[in-house]
Task: inverse folding
């Protein structure tokens, strides 16, 4: 049993985020979905349950939180480890090992289980979650979705009574979301109490027992499963929630047809284009004595990315799609010059660009935006990206992306969705010719996803070349004119939407 009674919480150093008079009871074996706009308090509730508040995140807390007859304020985090397991929005933040096998068993080793029991639990979890293909791999070589699976396995191996998932589908492709759904179903069948904070709703509608809707740090509505499933599209939009039922075209595209082996004709008839040449890259270290060997088309089958030539339309938004691990993030990193061993060249307006010149033409919003937030305020972060500071324009961008009031807030004090929007603000302020977005709607609610889609369209209308890697069919329908599918680091097809 989880009992939250009359809780008020205010993060230290923040006036906006927090909870206000929140009361919530969760029965043993119940599956609860927490939903609402970014920054509404979903993650804060999960931190109350797993003890990160007040033991890690400091602030003003009143009211009481009881988990399995334990007063959270009086219980040390290590005493909660076997009771509450958490899969965070960014799985990298909870990794302690460097390889998949070590990460799966880390928790069980840390609490001192016998070696035989550790091996038994590992085998059981690997079989249950179908992780055989990910064993004996470096965590650094995994895609975002694959890391999420390992994070689920490491939590599952501890066999906690309560499992918390914070935006678990944010980095997953369609197939991986289906696998995640099966994992949650198995946990549910085993009697686990499950709390899920999520924006994508369609895959959970048959699993949840109750849905809790938050707004500005307050619980304003609750639905049971049947009530929630019967909400109309208009009602969901009023609450700012994403669809419960996806259109048939999304199911066809992302459910399998998009990746079918049938041939697709590439549409490269656009007038103005950015031409990419010689994009060859591998993560495997190369043997060299004095000089690094230049990658070429020879033995291209050994490369993680192998694209000899590709034309992309200028002044348009191209959606980059593909399975987890297909090479989408690596493609973007190579294109913007972050992978120094990649010999890529760009032809733009009859100018050939390579090396450091590419860094001046491109700007990338990373999948994990924590790696590119450097300053002590949102406004300073946006101003940092400008060639010449323009406070008025910076504040306009901040307001457009729903961050007004957070100008002086430290970026690390923001929710995941708010951090994402801060990074997008910085990209817009940079005014680069080629703008790359890696999962820009990860952690965003429906309203802010529409705002981001509209901004990407506006950028294209201003002549910018925009490439957006995404698993969100809603975002594609909002802003993409072209689709590029990547498979095993190769272009499978390029076509109009």
Result:
């Amino acid at each position: 049993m989880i009992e939250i009674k009359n809780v008020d919480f205010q993060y230290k150093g923040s006036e906006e985020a927090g909870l206000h008079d929140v009361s919530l009871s969760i029965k043993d074996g119940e599956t609860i979905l927490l939903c609402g706009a970014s920054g509404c308090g979903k993650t804060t509730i999960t931190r109350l349950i797993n003890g990160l508040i007040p033991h890690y995140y400091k602030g003003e807390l009143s009211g009481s939180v009881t988990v399995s007859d334990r007063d959270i304020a009086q219980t040390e985090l290590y005493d909660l480890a076997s009771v509450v397991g958490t899969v965070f929005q960014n799985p990298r933040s909870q990794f302690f090992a460097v390889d998949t096998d070590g990460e799966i068993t880390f928790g069980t080793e840390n609490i001192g289980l016998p070696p035989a029991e550790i091996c038994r639990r590992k085998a059981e979890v690997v079989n249950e979650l179908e992780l055989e293909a990910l064993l004996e791999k470096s965590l650094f070589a995994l895609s975002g979705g694959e890391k999420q699976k390992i994070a689920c396995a490491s939590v599952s191996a501890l066999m906690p009574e309560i499992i918390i998932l914070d935006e678990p589908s944010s980095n997953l492709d369609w197939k991986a979301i289906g696998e995640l759904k099966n994992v949650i179903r198995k946990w549910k069948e085993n009697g686990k109490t499950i709390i899920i904070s999520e924006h994508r709703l369609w895959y959970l509608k048959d699993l949840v027992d109750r849905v809790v809707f938050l707004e500005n740090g307050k619980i304003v509505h609750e639905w049971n499963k049947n009530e929630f499933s019967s909400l109309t599209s208009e009602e969901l939009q009023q609450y700012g929630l994403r669809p419960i039922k996806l259109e048939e075209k999304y199911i066809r595209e992302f459910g399998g047809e998009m990746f079918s082996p049938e041939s697709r004709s590439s549409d490269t008839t656009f007038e103005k284009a950015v031409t990419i040449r010689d994009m060859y890259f591998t993560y495997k270290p190369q043997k060299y004595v004095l000089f690094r060997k230049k990658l070429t088309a020879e033995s291209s089958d050994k490369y993680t990315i192998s694209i000899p030539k590709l034309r992309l339309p200028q002044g348009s938004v191209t959606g980059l799609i593909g399975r987890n691990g297909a090479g989408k993030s690596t493609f973007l990193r190579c294109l913007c010059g972050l992978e120094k061993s990649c010999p890529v060249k760009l032809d733009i307006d009859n100018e050939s660009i390579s090396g450091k010149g590419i860094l001046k033409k491109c700007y990338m919003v990373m999948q994990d935006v924590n790696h590119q937030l450097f300053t002590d305020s949102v406004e300073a972060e946006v101003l940092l990206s400008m060639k010449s500071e323009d406070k008025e324009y910076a504040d306009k961008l901040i307001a457009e992306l729903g961050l007004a009031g957070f100008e002086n807030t430290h970026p690390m004090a923001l929710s995941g969705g708010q951090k994402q929007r801060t990074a997008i603000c910085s990209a817009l302020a940079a005014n680069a010719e080629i703008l790359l977005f890696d999962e820009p709607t990860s952690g965003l609610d429906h309203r802010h996803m529409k705002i981001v889609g509209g901004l990407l369209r506006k950028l294209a209308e201003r002549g910018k070349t925009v490439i957006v890697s995404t698993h969100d069919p809603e975002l594609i329908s909002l802003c993409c004119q072209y689709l590029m599918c990547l498979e095993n680091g190769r272009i499978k097809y390029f076509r109009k939407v």
